[in-house]
Amino acid sequence: MKWGMVIDLQKCTGCGECVAACKRENNVAIVEPKESAMGRTMLWMDMLTIYEGEYPRLRVRQIPRPCMHCDHPPCAKVCPVRATYINEEGIVAQIYPQCIGCRYCMAACPYTVKSFNWYKPEWSPGIRNTANPDVSVRPVGVVEKCTFCVHRRQKAKEQAKSEARELREDEYQPACAEGCPTGAIVFGDLENSRHRVNHLAHSPRATRLLEDLGTEPKVVYLKEGD
Amino acid sequence: MENLSAQPHPDAPLLRPIESPARSFYLIVGILLAIILYTGIVYLRQILFGLGVTGMAQPVTWGFYIINFVFFIGISHAGTLISAILRLSKAEWRRPITRMAEVITAIVLAIGGLHPIIDLGRPDRMLHLFYNGRLQSPLLWDVTSITAYFTASTVYLYIPLIPDIAILRDRGVKPRWLYEFLSWGWQGTERQHKVLERAMNILMVIVIPIAVSVHTIISYIFAMTVQPGWHSTIFGPYFVVGAIFSGIAAILVLMIVFRKIFRLEGYLKHIHFNYLSILLLIMSLIWFYFTFSEYLTGYYGHEPNEMRVFWYKFTGDFAPYFWTMVSCNFFLPVLLLCNRKTRTIPGILIASISVIIGMWLERLIIVVPSLANPRLPYPTGIYIPTHTEWMLFIGGISVFVLGYMIFARFFPVISIWEIEEGRKESAKIVTERISSYMPDIEPSSPGGR
Q1: What is the pTM (predicted TM-score) of this model?
Q2: Of residues A100, A104, A209, nearest to B126 (C-beta)
Q3: Where are the domains of chain A?
Q4: What is the CATH number of domain A3-222?
């Protein structure tokens, strides 16, 4: 089993619903505007804006960017305390109570996907009431990032186990995939030929970010057609 | 035992600061303690509120703490390494220098070694390094090598200090219990000298590879990632060279300061400065050679991400720092030290201070630009250190000055017994050594051709 994600840029409208859904789902802290301007915004799913060419042939592209969940994660390689590691299902996970906050993984990640809790995370009372009880809140001084909504896998797996059957594809979907209004984000098992991701990841349009680094990302992008 | 302090000693200038310390000592210690106390409060604030009080953010997640960590550990290379190499190569002029160099190592290493802990988001979980440590992480290698270096260099400082402590004990210098305890019953017997010599010989051989490993491993922290500007094979030797370079500059500054304050003109002569500054000059040239190779390879490879970091340093936001670094580390010291007219004490002082500043800038230039230019298009700002980070830097320097002052208050900064030994035996040993490698004169045989 190897969980992976395919993002079809042809279908993506850059609406940002994945970013918002992720933030709600994972109780990602909302920092003050001043902090955000400093570069301390916390986004597990970010929307990158890429400018290509020059006016009048300027082209602006929007790319949703979760953690790549590399098969050879540069972050896990350097972690001194095994607070970030790749689990048996291919998810690059974080153990918050183990993290010492050295930020080596952040410095080593070529995709810059990790966020750090510079202060104790705080939420306004209104937002606090809508917090997701399934996801633990991170303390100050630790690194966090996209987990492919691993808590949802846990839930779905237990459900499937109690009913003594295999996990179905639609049972475990991360919040971004579930929320995407155009169905651009597809999630599933890359090794299971019945899952859509397995099929899509072999499309001729398939590409990965910074492929040449040999990190083997499990997030596959489908290029836009003409 | 009666008080022998009044007796004249051939090396009285070395004992004077210990037996009758200047009044200004307490004043300076007071000022330093005030600075350190304030730094402590600032650090406490960081512990209470989190690393948010620093100027670090995403993507520049490492700032002053890591820069100063590399910088301080670099300075620490001076000491033990230089002292061990000079002792090993039997350079006679080393005698008044080794102790000063070794003290730098011990103090700066303690300060530098604390910096990664200051940098931690969760210093309370520091012990995870021991019971959850992953030996595959370069950070763990660092913990190991720095601990080894600190242990070896403090022992290496202490062992040759024992006979001097015994001199102070025999002269009845206060506090007596301190010297009584630390001299370990040294009587100066032949057997004791033999043991001392054996211990020093073993230590100086051990210390050299450890010292080289320490800075190599610090460079590995950067080189083991795939980040542009860091992932370089020459980083190990490049860092070691830079470390020795900044270390020699630090020794020279301290020698000049102590010569002035303790009036040690009779011990630290022009020849010592001349030899060491030529070493500094050589290191400056080697440093330039490494820097040149590093950037030229990057430039010719022309990998786009590498080039973004390259231009960021050469013409971008970091250009002022980059060119100041090149001037401070190369142009100024080479100009000053190449010319015998400017290779005077003020000239050497300027060159050394310039090298220390330049080497700090080099650490800045290695750490920040690579982080500030992530591969993917993120909005990035400029890293501006806050008051907290500046204070911890100033505090670190204050701890160094204070530590050195306290050492110099209680122990001689120049090894008295080694100077005495040099006076008694050096000339004879050196003559013997030289004659031993002179070619033998062919015995004249009357019947030969």
Answers
A1: 0.91
A2: A100
A3: 3-222
A4: 3.30.70.20
